[in-house]
């Protein structure tokens, strides 16, 4: 992968699709401006078995408006740097057996940018991602599958492709999948450098 102004074709396609997604999905365009510039960075690929699980879910339906981004993200997944969030915590190994993500635009990715971080996430069926919070403001856009979104003080909502969930800064929230997995696009703005922390002191196993 070349740095500077040269970007590999797969990632250029993902950048183009991501820009279009932010332009065409009202919830994303209202959430934050897309960063400019986006600069190609050298970023070593890091594989996660959940990448294979996600790519095996090709039959999951999405919406026509999400198709180009969904396909571009799947194409880039094998050359992405999959993340180790919470890996060093007591719940880390359990989490990483069921939940994986890679950064699309931001700090630890080929598509380098300031002021925003975005991620492609996959959660396996039948898993509860416990209550956690972070100073970054966040929005989820469901691309395929479904999930039940929880936020402290509000009723839980089950969302499918096209649904969005907004989490204000430091608002405790959680995510439960049932029979289907979840593939989603997640965007952070605000204080985007601090790591999430558990809100539940005894996360379920």
Describe this structure in words.
- It contains five helices and eleven strands, in the order H-H-E-H-H-H-E-E-E-E-E-E-E-E-E-E.
- Strand 6 and strand 7 (154-160) form a beta hairpin.
- Helix 1 packs antiparallel against helix 4.
- Mean pLDDT is 92; it is low at 1-5 and 201-205.
- The protein has one domain (9-198): Sandwich (Jelly Rolls).
- The chain has 205 residues and is an alpha+beta fold.
- Strands 1, 2, 3, 4, 5, 6, 7, 8, 9, 10 and 11 form an eleven-stranded mixed beta sheet that branches.
- It is globular, with a radius of gyration of 16 Å.
Helix/sheet category: alpha+beta
- The number of domains is 1
Could you give the count of β-strands? 11
Can you tell me the CATH topology? Answer: Jelly Rolls
* Number of helices in the DSSP assignment: 5
Helix content: 10-25%
CATH superfamily: Jelly Rolls
Assembly of the depicted chains: single chain
Quick one: biggest sheet? 11 strands, mixed
Order of helices and strands: HHEHHHEEEEEEEEEE
The name of the CATH architecture is Sandwich
Using only C-alpha atoms, the radius of gyration works out to: 16 Å
Beta-strand percentage range: 25-35%
Report how far apart the termini are.
39 Å
Mean pLDDT: 92
Globally, the shape reads: globular
Provide the low-confidence segments as ranges: 1-5, 201-205
Please report the first level of CATH classification, the CATH class. Mainly Beta
């Amino acid at each position: 992968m070349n740095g500077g102004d040269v970007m590999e074709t797969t990632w250029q396609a993902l950048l183009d699709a991501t820009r279009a997604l932010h332009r065409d999905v009202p919830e994303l365009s209202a959430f934050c401006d897309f960063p400019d510039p986006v600069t190609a960075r050298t970023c070593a690929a890091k594989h996660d078995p959940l990448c294979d699980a996600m790519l095996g879910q090709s039959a999951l339906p999405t919406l026509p408006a999400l198709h180009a981004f969904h396909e571009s993200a799947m194409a880039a997944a094998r050359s992405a740097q999959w993340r180790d969030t919470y890996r060093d915590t007591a719940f880390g190994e359990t989490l990483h057996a069921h939940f994986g993500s890679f950064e699309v635009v931001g700090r630890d990715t080929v598509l380098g940018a300031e002021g925003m971080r975005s991620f492609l996430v996959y959660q396996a069926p039948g898993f509860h991602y416990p209550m956690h919070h972070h100073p970054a403001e966040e929005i989820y856009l469901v691309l395929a599958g479904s999930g039940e979104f929880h936020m402290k003080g509000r009723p839980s909502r089950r969302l499918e492709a096209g649904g969005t969930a907004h989490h204000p800064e430091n608002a405790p929230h959680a995510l439960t999948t049932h029979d289907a997995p979840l593939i989603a696009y997640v965007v952070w703005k605000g204080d985007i450098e601090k790591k999430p922390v558990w809100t539940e002191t005894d996360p379920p196993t």
